Amino acid sequence: MIKDFKKEKSQTGLFDFTPTSILMDVNKNVIINNNKTSNIDMNENSKIGMSPLRGRGFTMMEVLLGLFIVSLIGLVIFEFQFNIFKIESILNGSLDASYESSKAVKVLAKEIREANIGNDGSFPVLTATDDEFVFFSDINNDGLREKIRYVLSDRYLKKQISKFEGTPPSYTEYGEPKNVINYLVNDIQPVFIYYDSSYDGSSAPLLSPVNILQIRLVKIILEIDKDDAKAPAPIRAETNVMIRNLKDNR
Question: Which pLDDT does position 22 carry in this prediction?
């Protein structure tokens, strides 16, 4: 068949191609058609998969709204952390004040418990009011009893000491006051309350002005608040001190 086809071409001269050229042209057309089909498919796929918003940028309103939301979230987080730090600071301040006051109360109670007759022969207690207590006690174990004054002044419980010295010996003027307990808010609540020998835990205190000869027990009440304009509520410290050397059954 192929031989006759070639022979016909050579005899007539009407055809200038061979089966090989026909195959090449057919292949070329197939390739071209395939490319067109691929292009059509890609275009169709692109149209199908393309979002209506593709290529669209953010508007100024959208940008401003996003910035506002981010700023609002940041503000909420900052406020939350600030409140945590604030509460922690307040609690730490209250705990520090409570700890320092607890140590001072222990010292105060020990000194009052050991109150005794002064080296000049005075009664162990000199002054007993709601906000002031003066007594004699050997606080440095030197055999001489100091005259000790505790007084509430400007939210501070202050301590002053007078020593028994000189020739002839006598009690000197009080030394410089020292703050022993800070942040007191005993505006109404007395710091010192006094009881006689009948105290049983529920007895009424001695009435003011107190007869110092009847004092046998001293109740100390301290209300402590580093910042009374803010929470938490004041811390209350309370202790009872029996004066050993004034016991009726000693």
Answer: 42
pTM metric for this prediction: 0.63
Give the number of other CB atoms < 10 A from CB of residue 131: 14
Beta-bridged to residue 184, according to DSSP, are 224
Instruction: Map out the domains of the chain as residue ranges.
Output: 88-246
From the list 101, 100, 127, the residue with the least C-alpha distance to 112 is 127
Identify the helix (H) or strand (E) that includes residue 108: helix 60-113
Tell me the DSSP string of 18-79: -HHHHHHHHHHHHHHHHHHHHHHHHHHHHHHH--TTTT----HHHHHHHHHHHHHHHHHHHH
Alpha-carbon span 52 to 178, nearest angstrom: 81
Percent of the chain residues past pLDDT 90, beyond the cut: 42
Q: Which two tokens stand for residue 41?
A: 């498919």
- Residue 96: the pLDDT is 63
